[in-house]
Amino acid sequence: MSHFPSWMLRSARTYLKAAELLYTKNLPHVAMVNAAMGMEILLKSFISVPDQHEGTSGETYTLDLDAIKAAHEHLQSIG
Fold first, then answer.
1. Buried (b) or exposed (e) across 42-75, using 16+ Cβ within 10 A?
2. DSSP labels, 10-69
3. Domain layout of the chain by residue ranges
4. Cα–Cα distance measured from residue 4 to residue 39, given in angstroms and rounded to the nearest whole number
């Protein structure tokens, strides 16, 4: 991957740290939602590519459909 969306990693870490804090405050259901959001952002960071305004604060991303298709084909080939 030539572009690594570091802000996605920071956002994922923030959600995961919030989940840890919420869990210690006896709010496990809210903690689970935050943990799930953090994991979703983290996983999507591996298959996201910039699509507009690259290198600016308004940079947006889209999923790398070629990477997803290649991964799907690989999984199908191994059963």
1. beebebbbeeeeeeeeeeebeebeeeeeeeeeee
2. HHHHHHHHHHHHHHHTT-HHHHHHHHHHHHHHHHHHTTEEEEESTTSTT-EEEE-HHHHH
3. 6-78
4. 16
Res 29: pLDDT: 98
User: Would you tell me how many other CB atoms lie within 10 Å of the CB of residue 20?
Assistant: 12
Question: How many CA atoms, within 13 angstroms, populate the side-chain half-sphere of residue 50?
Answer: 15
Q: What is the pLDDT of residues 1-45, one digit of tens each?
A: 456 678 889 999 999 999 999 999 999 999 999 999 999 999 998
Note if the pTM is more than 0.70: yes
31 vs 14: CA distance, rounded Å: 12
Residue 45 tokens read as 């960071």
Only one residue has tokens 């699509």, namely 51
